[in-house]
Design brief:
The protein is of the alpha/beta class. The chain has 27 helices and 27 strands.
Length: 811
C-alpha cells in the first residue's frame, strides 16, 4: 500500500510561529505583572497569565497541526483536543509560579523545567493522539527524545528569560530585551513542536482511502483559531498596557515622592515589622554617617543606643501584639548613635501602615543637637549665674518650690543655708573686680564640694550664696555648715597672692522657721546677720528672738540717719599718758550717741551699722573735723600742745580722696598736721601694696599714724617694716589679762620689744590697775590709756585735766 504523504500549509506555519512569539511576548509581560503584584493580585495574575500563555502555546501547536496536511482524511477527537490544553496551562502556571518566588535556585529551575517540559510534551503528543484517520502513527525514538530534550531546554531558557525580564522591568533597555527574549522563546517552542512532528510517521490501514476528501476545512479552522487567539493575546497586551500606564503614573508619583524624601534634611527611614531597614535617604546618611548600602537589610538597632535597645524591642512587640499606639503619631525626644559610636539627641516622629498583611514603619528623625545647645545656652542665661554657673535666684525659687511641695506631701524637713562672705567687699574694692570674680568662682567650688548631689547651691548676687538641703535634719545641716566653714580655713591663692575669706552662715528649717520661700530665706538671712554680729566665720540657726534684734537694728539704722541732722552725736576724749612721766601727751576722740528716746547708745551697737550702711563716711568726717577743731581750740586756750587721735574706719580708708579730705579739714580748722593722729585697724592695711602708698602720703603731711588693736587682725608681722607708722596700740584684751594669762603677758612683752626694734612707740589701752601700769613701765611701754587714768570725758572736763597739769607745772 502506498505511504501516506504529508505537506505543510506555509501561511499557517508562519501564523503558528507568530502566535508562539506573541504568546512568549505575552508571557514575558505577564511575568512582569506577577513580579510586581502583591498577595492576592499576584495569584490572579498567575492564574490569568497561565490561561493566556497556555492557550497561546496550545493554539500555536494546534494551528501547526492544522497546517500539516496528510494524503488521507483526518479528523480530531474534540475531547482529546480540549484535554491537551490542560498540560499547556499547567506548564505555564508552573513557570509563572517559579519566577514569582523570592529566590530561584538552580535546583528549583531544573525541577520546574522538568515538569514544564513534561506538560508541553504531554500537550503535544495528546494533540497528536487526538488525530482520527485510517493510519497508525509511529514515532522515531531518537527524534521523539530530541523533542523532549528540546522541550526541557526550552523550559529552562523560558524560566530564565521570564525571571530576567520580571526582575529588570524598570530597565530602560526592557523593550528590546523583551522582544529578543520573545523571539528566542517563540522560535524555541515552535522548534520543539516541529521536531516532535518530524518524529511521527503515518502507516495507513490495509483498506484506507488515501484519496478521500477531508471532512472539514482545516485551514479555515486554523485561521479561525488564530484569529481568536490573536484577539485573546491582544486583550492580554491591552491589559498589560493599561497596567503599565497606571504603573508609569505610579512610578512618576513614586519618583516625585522619592525625590522629596531624598531632598529632605531630616532622616526618613522605612523598616518592616522586624525592624529591618528597607529605605534610607540622604538625610539619614548625613545625620548618622552610614551610607545606604551599609544599612539596607540590617536592623534598626544599629542606630539605637544600647541602653534603649531592649525598650525598643519590647515597644515594637507590644505594638504588633496590641496595636496600642503609645508612640505612634507622636513626636518624642530620644538619642541616636552615629557610625562613629557617638550618641546625640534626636527628635523622632513614628508612623506605621499595613500592606499585604504586613506592618511597616516610617521614622522621621531630626538631629536636635544644635537646638539642645541653644536651649542649654538660654537656660544658662535665664537660670544660671553667668560668673559661677550656679543656679540663680529664679532657678532656686523653682527648685525650692518643688522641694516645699514634696516636703509638705511627705512630711519631710528641709534646710536653707544663707552664706555671706566676710571681708569680701574689702578684697573686691582693693584688689579689683577681676580678682573678686575669681575669688567667687573658687568659693562656689568649695561650697559645692561640701554638700550633696541632691542639694542646690545658688548664688543670689554679690557674695551671697544660698544652699537648699531637701529631706534633711538639723544634725545633717549642722554637719554641712561646719564642713563649709572648715573648707575656708585654708587660704585662697589667686595670681600668686594669698587671700583669706570666711563665711557667715544663717540657717532656717522647714516647717519650723517658715512655710514659704520668702519666710525661709528671710529668716536664714536674719540668722546670718546674727553670726556677723557675733564675730563672723560661724553658723547660726534662726530663732524667733532674732527678729526682735533685726527690728531693733532697722530702728537704729533709721535713727542713725537722722542723728547728724538732730545733733545727737557728741565727742568725748580719753587722755593718753606718758608711762614714765605720767603727763597727758594726747587724747583719743571717741564718738557717743545720745538718743532723745532710747538714751545713750553704745558704739558697739551703732558703729557696725554705720559701717554696713556707709553712714560711717559722713559720721567719720564729722568726728575728724570736730576733734581737730577742739584740739585747735585747746591750743588757743594756751594748754600744752598734744595730739588728738581719731579712728579711721576701713570704709573711710578706701576712699580714693581720703588724703585730700584730711588735708582740707586741717586747713579748715587750722590744726597743724603733727597734732593729728590717725588710728588704723589691721584690716585696713592688710593689702599693703595699696595701703602703703596712701599711708606714706599722710605721713609726709606730718600726720602721726598708729595701728589700733594690734594683734587681733590677720596681718603678718613682717609687713610692719614696710608700713610708714609711728605707734602700735596694744588691744585692751591683752592688757587686761597680763596677770591672769601668761600667754597674754608674753605677747604684750613681745609686741613692745618688736616695736622698739622697729623704732616704733607703743601705747597700751585698757589699763585699769596699778599692777598693769607697773608691768608696762617695767617692759618700757611708752604710753597708756584706760580707766586707771581717766574714763572718756567731755571736752570741758578734758580742759580741766589740762588746766590742772598746767597749774602743777607752774608750782
Amino acid at each position: 500500500m502506498d505511504a501516506v504523504s504529508s505537506s505543510y500549509h506555509i501561511p499557517l506555519v508562519i501564523l503558528s510561529i507568530v502566535i508562539a512569539i506573541l504568546a512568549s511576548y505575552a508571557a514575558l509581560d505577564l511575568a512582569i505583572q506577577v513580579n510586581k503584584a502583591k498577595s492576592i493580585a499576584r495569584h490572579i495574575w498567575v492564574g490569568a497569565g497561565a490561561f493566556a500563555m497556555g492557550l497561546g502555546i496550545w493554539a500555536m501547536h494546534f494551528i501547526a497541526m492544522l497546517a500539516f496536511h496528510l494524503s488521507i482524511p483526518v479528523t480530531y477527537n474534540v475531547t482529546l483536543v480540549i484535554f491537551s490544553i490542560l498540560p499547556a496551562i499547567i506548564a505555564s502556571a508552573l513557570a509563572l509560579f517559579i519566577i514569582s518566588r523570592t529566590t530561584m535556585g538552580r535546583r528549583q529551575v531544573l525541577l520546574g523545567a522538568f515538569f514544564m517540559a513534561a506538560g508541553i510534551v504531554s500537550m503535544h503528543y495528546s494533540g497528536m493522539e487526538a488525530m482520527k484517520m485510517d493510519a497508525v502513527i509511529e514515532y522515531n525514538r531518537f527524534i521523539w527524545g530530541l523533542s523532549a530534550i528540546i522541550a526541557f531546554v526550552v523550559s529552562i531558557v523560558a524560566l530564565y528569560l521570564l525571571s530576567f525580564v520580571s526582575q529588570n522591568y524598570r530597565s530602560r533597555k526592557l523593550p528590546w530585551i523583551k522582544t529578543v527574549s520573545a523571539l528566542i522563546m517563540g522560535i524555541a517552542i515552535s522548534g520543539m513542536h516541529y521536531t516532535g512532528m518530524a518524529a511521527a510517521s503515518y502507516k495507513p490501514h490495509q483498506h484506507a482511502d488515501l484519496n478521500g476528501a477531508a471532512p472539514f476545512n482545516s485551514t479555515l479552522l486554523a485561521y479561525a483559531i488564530g484569529i481568536v487567539i490573536l484577539i485573546l493575546l491582544g486583550l492580554v497586551f491591552l491589559s498589560t498596557f493599561i497596567d503599565r500606564r497606571f504603573e508609569y503614573q505610579s512610578i512618576q508619583s513614586e519618583r516625585k515622592f522619592r525625590s522629596l524624601i531624598e531632598s529632605a534634611n531630616d532622616a526618613i527611614i522605612l523598616s518592616d515589622s522586624r525592624g529591618t531597614i528597607i529605605s534610607w535617604n540622604k538625610g539619614a546618611e548625613c545625620i548618622f554617617g552610614f551610607h545606604k548600602n551599609e544599612v539596607l537589610g540590617k536592623n534598626l538597632q544599629i542606630i539605637i543606643p544600647e541602653k534603649y535597645q531592649e525598650a525598643h524591642q519590647k515597644g515594637m512587640a507590644r505594638y504588633l501584639a496590641t496595636g496600642e499606639p503609645k508612640v505612634m503619631g507622636k513626636t518624642v525626644e530620644l538619642e541616636g548613635v552615629r557610625k562613629d559610636g557617638s550618641e546625640f539627641p534626636i527628635e523622632l516622629s513614628l508612623a506605621s501602615w499595613k500592606e499585604d498583611g504586613n506592618v511597616f514603619f516610617s521614622s522621621i528623625i531630626r538631629d536636635i543637637s544644635l537646638r539642645k545647645k541653644n536651649e542649654e545656652k538660654i537656660n544658662q542665661m535665664i537660670y544660671r549665674d553667668p560668673l559661677t554657673g550656679l543656679p540663680n535666684r529664679l532657678l532656686l525659687n523653682d527648685r525650692l518650690g518643688q522641694a516645699l511641695d514634696q516636703a509638705n506631701n511627705n512630711k519631710q524637713t528641709l534646710g536653707i543655708m544663707f552664706i555671706d562672705l566676710d571681708r569680701f567687699k574689702y578684697i573686691n574694692d582693693t584688689l579689683g573686680h577681676a580678682v573678686g570674680d575669681e575669688l567667687l568662682i573658687e568659693v562656689a567650688k568649695r561650697i559645692e564640694a561640701c554638700v550633696g548631689k541632691a542639694d542646690t547651691v545658688s548664688r543670689q548676687g554679690g557674695d551671697e550664696f544660698i544652699v537648699l538641703v531637701p529631706n534633711t535634719t538639723s544634725d545633717e545641716v549642722t554637719k554641712k555648715a561646719q564642713k563649709v566653714i572648715d573648707s575656708f580655713s585654708h587660704s585662697v591663692m589667686l595670681n600668686e597672692q594669698e587671700l583669706f575669706v570666711t563665711p557667715s552662715i544663717g540657717i532656717s528649717m522647714y516647717p519650723g522657721d517658715g512655710r514659704d520661700i520668702e519666710a525661709l530665706i528671710k529668716n536664714a538671712d536674719t540668722a546670718m546677720y546674727r553670726v556677723k554680729e557675733q564675730g563672723k566665720n560661724n553658723f547660726q540657726f534662726y530663732t524667733p528672738e532674732m527678729n526682735e534684734a533685726v527690728t531693733k537694728k532697722m530702728q537704729l539704722e533709721v535713727g542713725l540717719r537722722k542723728a547728724l541732722e538732730r545733733n545727737e552725736f557728741h565727742i568725748v576724749y580719753q587722755p593718753q599718758i606718758d608711762v614714765k612721766t605720767g603727763q597727758v601727751i594726747g587724747a583719743e576722740a571717741l564718738l557717743r550717741w545720745e538718743h532723745p528716746e532710747w538714751g545713750s547708745i553704745s558704739p558697739a551697737e551703732f558703729i557696725p551699722i554705720a559701717e554696713e550702711t556707709g553712714l560711717i563716711l559722713q559720721i567719720g568726717e564729722w568726728v575728724l573735723r570736730g576733734a581737730c577743731l577742739q584740739n585747735k581750740q585747746w591750743q588757743k586756750y594756751g594748754f600744752r600742745e598734744l595730739r588728738v587721735a581719731v579712728n579711721i574706719s576701713s570704709r573711710q580708708f578706701q576712699q580714693s580722696d581720703l588724703v585730700e579730705r584730711v588735708s582740707e579739714i586741717l586747713k579748715e580748722t587750722g590744726l597743724a598736721p603733727e597734732y593729728l593722729e590717725l588710728e588704723l585697724t589691721e584690716s585696713i592695711i592688710q593689702d599693703s601694696k595699696y595701703a602703703v602708698a596712701k599711708m606714706q602720703q599722710l605721713k609726709e603731711m606730718g600726720i602721726h599714724l598708729s595701728i589700733d588693736d594690734f594683734g587681733t587682725g590677720y596681718s603678718s608681722l613682717s609687713y610692719l617694716k614696710t608700713f610708714p607708722i609711728h605707734t602700735l596700740k596694744i588691744d585692751r584684751s591683752f592688757t587686761s589679762n597680763i596677770y591672769t594669762d601668761s600667754k597674754d603677758a608674753s605677747l604684750v612683752e613681745t609686741i613692745i620689744s618688736m616695736a622698739h626694734n622697729l623704732n616704733l612707740k607703743v601705747i597700751a589701752e585698757g589699763v585699769e590697775t596699778e599692777e598693769q601700769l607697773q608691768f608696762l613701765q617695767q617692759k618700757q611701754c611708752n604710753e597708756a590709756q584706760g580707766y586707771f587714768f581717766s574714763r572718756p570725758i567731755s571736752a570741758s572736763a578734758m580742759e580741766e585735766v589740762l588746766q590742772g597739769e598746767s597749774t602743777a607745772e607752774v608750782h
